[in-house]
Design goal:
2 copies of one chain form a homodimer. In chain A, helix 1 crosses helix 2. Chain A has 2 domains: 3-114, ATPase, nucleotide binding domain (Nucleotidyltransferase, domain 5); 126-283, 2-Layer Sandwich (Nucleotidyltransferase, domain 5). Chain A has helices at 37-54, 92-100, 112-122, 181-185, 187-196, 205-213, 217-241, 256-270, 289-305; strands spanning 3-8, 12-18, 24-31, 64-69, 72-73, 78-81, 90-91, 107-111, 130-135, 139-145, 148-149, 245-249, 279-282. A 5-stranded mixed sheet of chain A has the order 3-2-1-4-8, sandwiched between helices. By secondary structure, the first copy, chain A, is of the alpha/beta class. Chain A starts with a strand and ends with a helix. Chains A and B meet through strand 10 and helix 7 of A and strand 10 and helix 7 of B.
Chain lengths: 306, 306
């Protein structure tokens, strides 16, 4: 079986052709502007077509295609909005079908973080109750309860990035509020904290990680403080839904070990003992988590359609 | 069908014989000390026996019996502990079977707040995604996700009472932590706040409600402040799991209207817009919510055993 996977991000697009076991056969990655939505979808289609071409196939040879949306999207492919891409609502299904010249019935859509959680279920060996938390430019989340993705009443469950973790020195958040996890523990927040700590305004999360690993105590403190905030949000989640795991993904997940002691201390202080043994670990899916997610979305859809 | 229902609380026990539609045919309510566990279970059995006797039946005529535990309990009837009753772990199933001289297979157990959520599903017409929040001496919670009770990894989901809602002026909580919802928005917390506001040390939540309804601005402010804290905890829950409803039960739920404006304002400020339309309302089950819960636990168990 050949699966097309599209991970549509706010600044870049990844596409792949994969097997049903999650093996990547061909992959493309390009920076793509989100400004013109039809052009963006045209780029996605072109990139996926090139992946198929690399393998001697055409798009029509794919059994189905899964696409991650960096925002809110219904299971029917209706995008409700994406702050990170600057998108309002539109019908992604018809747009992608036109761009791919493909049968819209073979197309499946999901929020990008939900897709990661679905990949963790299908390819990562997870089950039961867990949280997926992305630490990247922002903080996205997904919740799996009783072995099923939790969508919530309005398809908006998993907004762990907007749980309040600071009230006294609360930072403004992109959502319009303040004190959210995303304002205190995203890649952007790490860079801000690094600058405030005197590490310079060009120290992003990656550079801060390098400094911390080189023994820079200020950079280490930046990650420890970030870990406290992640621990606070995870403690709220632990008390409420008692998950077994929190899988951490996104670029900053590479620095999880620098934050983990503070995360675990905070969990111990803020979650009831029966819920505090939440195991916090990097996703087992590696850097292809989101692409695997798009493939999982497609495979789930194909199985359901049978 | 005749169902036995036992709502075992930290200070009192309610028992009833009910129909499978949730109609209460006979009911007993007594204060019972939790100190001697076998004696406590003996009392429960005696009270249920009297309910059956009122109707001209004996315990053996009951098709099954459901019992709420005021603490953590596995679906197999193993109590893991109850802070409010002062209980450590023990096997409730064999204890109740001995006390009732009944077949242990006909006995079903559940945490009391989980039972209320199950009653909301069976008798209240609820489905989908909702939270149950008790505001009584303490704050207990339960979560229903995708139409199913969420138990979590250790059977401990729903500890919304221990979500942190205050960090600056955090009050100590019975759990050993501080700043928990239960420390700031339980019946006990309302009485504390009333005393601090000069309403006198004998002003409990009920009396504070009377004062507020008589136009006492200080008592009204006590409820408004309590509402802010409830709103904070519900906003965390809304962002994470996007439930449609929060059903409020327990004695202080009668004063929900006095807290609702503050709850709704806080939700609007602290939940992302797509999750902020959480509808907060009193349980539709009324004062028999917990007894209906015990009946729902029994009926679920009997259906599963078929």
């Amino acid at each position: 079986m050949l699966i097309g996977a599209i991970d549509a991000g706010g600044t870049k697009v990844l596409t792949a052709v994969m097997t049903e076991t999650g093996k990547v056969l061909a992959k493309r990655r390009l920076p793509v502007s989100t400004e013109d939505v039809p052009a963006y979808f045209g780029c996605c289609a072109e990139m996926l077509s090139m992946c198929a071409c690399d393998l001697g196939y055409v798009l029509g040879d794919l059994d189905g295609i899964g696409m991650n949306i960096p925002g809110m999207v219904t299971p029917h492919g209706c995008v409700l909005g994406s702050p990170s891409a600057g998108w309002q609502s539109f019908d992604a299904r018809s747009l992608l079908a036109v761009a791919l010249e493909s049968n819209p019935e073979k197309l499946y859509f999901e929020n990008d973080i939900n897709a990661c959680a679905l990949a963790e279920l299908r390819f990562g060996g997870a089950d039961g109750n867990f949280i997926w938390l992305t630490i990247s430019t922002g903080n996205g989340g997904a919740v799996v309860a009783n072995g099923n993705l939790l969508r919530g009443a309005n398809n908006c469950a998993g907004e762990i990035g907007h749980i309040k973790v600071e009230r006294q020195d609360a930072y403004p958040c992109g959502c319009g509020g303040s004190g959210c996890l995303e304002a205190h523990a995203s890649g952007v927040a790490i860079a801000r904290r690094a600058a405030e700590a005197g590490l310079g305004h060009d120290t992003d999360a990656r550079r801060c990680e390098e400094l911390a690993r080189d023994g820079n105590a200020v950079a280490q403190a930046v990650f420890a403080e970030t870990g406290i905030y992640i621990g606070r949000a995870l403690a709220s989640a632990a008390n409420l839904i008692n998950p077994e795991y929190a899988f951490i993904g996104g670029g900053v997940a590479a620095a999880l070990d620098l934050m983990l002691p503070a995360i675990e201390d905070t969990l111990k202080n803020e979650a009831v003992p029966q819920c505090a043994d939440l195991k916090v670990m990097r996703t087992r899916l590696g850097y292809d988590a989101a692409l695997l997610g798009a493939a999982a979305v497609c495979l789930n859809g194909l199985e359901k359609a049978k």
